Amino acid sequence: MSSPHHLSVSSRPGNVSASLQAILDDHEGPLHMRFEPGVHRCGGLRLRSDLTIEIPKGAELHFIPDYAAYEATSVSIVAEESDRGMLVAADASNISIIGGGRIFGDGATAFTHGEDGDMGTLVAHKLRPRVLVLENCRNVRVEGIRIDDSPMWTMHFAGCENLEIVGVSVDNNRRMPNTDGIVIDGCRNVRIRGSSFRTADDGIVLKTTRREDGRLTGDCEKIQVSDCVVESRSCALKIGTESFSPFRDISFERIRIEGSNRGLGIFSRDGGLVDGVRFSGITLACHETPAGFWGSGEAVTINTIDRRPEEGPAGRVSNIVIENVTGSMEGAINLVAERPGDIANVAIRGVHLKQRPGPLGTALTYDIRPTIDDRFDRFPQDKGAGRVNAWRFGPDGKIIGLVPYPGGMPGVFARGVSGLSLDDIEIDRPAQLPESWNASVIVELDRMVGA
Predict the structure, then answer these.
(1) Which of 1, 253, 304, 372 has the maximum number of C-beta atoms within 10 A of its C-beta?
(2) CA-angle at 86, arms to 81 and 91, nearest 5°
(3) DSSP character for 117?
(4) Mean per-residue pLDDT for 133-147?
């Protein structure tokens, strides 16, 4: 490969997206585009191969807070009904986004229209762009940048290979729905390290989606996440719920989870198996959230639920290791298989947690959302029914998918799990158990011995 051409972009008033896109389109060969310190305002940009975007300290990329500004940067994967991104690329290779500068999405102010006090969230616009969407790309590096206030998923990598995410910081509004920190969707050979993700939705999430035309994005395998900090009002470290293809060979190591709802989560719904996942060296603080958020204060949640029974069962979850976990939780550790044996060979060891009551009482149920009743194609049109992909009210006026623990909340709850191994588990509970807590620390139902 020839040496890159270096080009500096000075800060100037107005929308600079047309001029920037012209540079990207017209220049042949490797290009290193450096934004000079100052504010740069633009709409969507379509990136290409052999490109380095440098946003150094003091440079700020402010995206125009209008969904229409991203008509030319649509993407093939629809997320939460939206199909546009701010920085996008498809079928490209050798892309780097580097530097110590900042990217602003203006999500909480420009893409909301009120708040839902009961559920604890802002009410977001239906159509919102993601900040970064790369599809079917190879050899990608994102390093050192900070992204603030994303309107939707912050970084979405779909069908990509050889990703390196280093020293990145994401800081989103903690009440803005669907603002996942980083989404690894059907990707292979991924390393995420030394980064922080603070957001209202999932922090670091692995998915295997199905596209609008029915094509599968692909398997998610050989994923390594290490030395990160995550704060999430949903699930800090998550696999699923979109799970059309398999997940294999995944590790999360030395992660600090702060002020989060759920800590570690695996959610199988759509047929893809989950095999070979390790969580190790995790410190966490999980607290209750209003019922509009999935889960409440759980250190660990693993569940398998058939979301599309007409197409087939949820994929099996097996060969899971959870070790050396410390911290606190206001909920419990729960593992629930809709069909006994669909969660198998789970080793939980070296787990030392404080379990304390939360102020809301929402942790006293375990949460199996999303279910078949939450699907877009089955959701009622009545606005009073709930919110799509969030919650739905049943005939009794209660949220569907919240199930009371039998006999009260224990420290560890397992239902239908095969080959569960528990070793060196310490759950520090109040001497006087609160109302609706189970006297047993560990409760196993429909226990299966074999794999």
Answers:
(1) 304
(2) 90
(3) T
(4) 98
The confidence score (pLDDT) of residue 449 equals 66
Q: What is the C-alpha separation between 129 and 137, in angstroms, rounded?
A: 19
Residue in 137, 141, 153 with CA at minimum distance from that of residue 90: 137
Could you please report the per-residue DSSP string of 365-398?
Answer: EEE--S-GGG-GGG--S-GGGEETTTEEB-TTSS
pLDDT band at 399 (very low <50, low <70, confident <90, very high): confident
Residue 2, pLDDT score: 80
H or E element: which one contains 19?
helix 17-26
**What's the predicted TM-score (pTM) here?**
0.96
Q: Is the previous residue joined to 65 through a cis bond, with omega within 30 degrees of 0?
A: no
Residue 291 domain-assigned? yes
Q: Which residue has the tokens 């729905």?
A: 177
- Are 223 and 190 in contact by the 8 Å Cβ rule? The answer is yes
**Is-contact 236 259, C-beta < 8 A?**
no
Q: CA 145, CA 170: separation in Å to the nearest integer?
A: 9
Task: Give the domain extent around 178.
Answer: 124-445
Adjacent-strand bridge partners of 70: none
pLDDT of residue 367: 94
Average pLDDT over residues 384-411: 85
Q: What are the tens digits of pLDDT across the range 294-303?
A: 889 999 999 9
Whether 450 is in a domain gets the answer: no
* Inter-residue contact 28 to 4 (CB < 8 Å): no
Domain contains 342: yes
| Residue 395 burial class via C-beta count within 10 angstroms: exposed 0-12, middle 13-18, buried 19 and up | exposed
Residues with Cβ within 8 Å of 215's Cβ and at least 6 positions away in sequence, in order, are: none
Contact 243, 314 (CB under 8 A): yes
The pLDDT confidence band at residue 50, using thresholds 50, 70 and 90, is very high
285 within a domain of the structure (yes/no): yes
- C-alpha distances out from residue 449 to 8, 113, 189, 297, 416, Å: 64, 52, 34, 29, 10
Measured distance CA(274)–CA(48) in Å, rounded: 33
Within a 13 Å sphere around the CA of 176, how many CA atoms are in the beta-carbon half? 26
Return the structure tokens found at 416. 């239908």
Q: How far apart are CA 269 and CA 307, in angstroms?
A: 5
CB 170 within 8 A of CB 179: no
Give 152-209 pLDDT, tens digit per residue.
Answer: 999 999 999 999 999 999 999 999 999 999 999 999 999 999 999 999 999 999 999 9
Segment 416-441 shows an average pLDDT of: 97
The pLDDT of 32-36, averaged and rounded, is 98
Q: Look at the chain and report how many structural domains it folds into.
A: 1
CA atoms of 331 and 265, how far apart (whole Å): 13
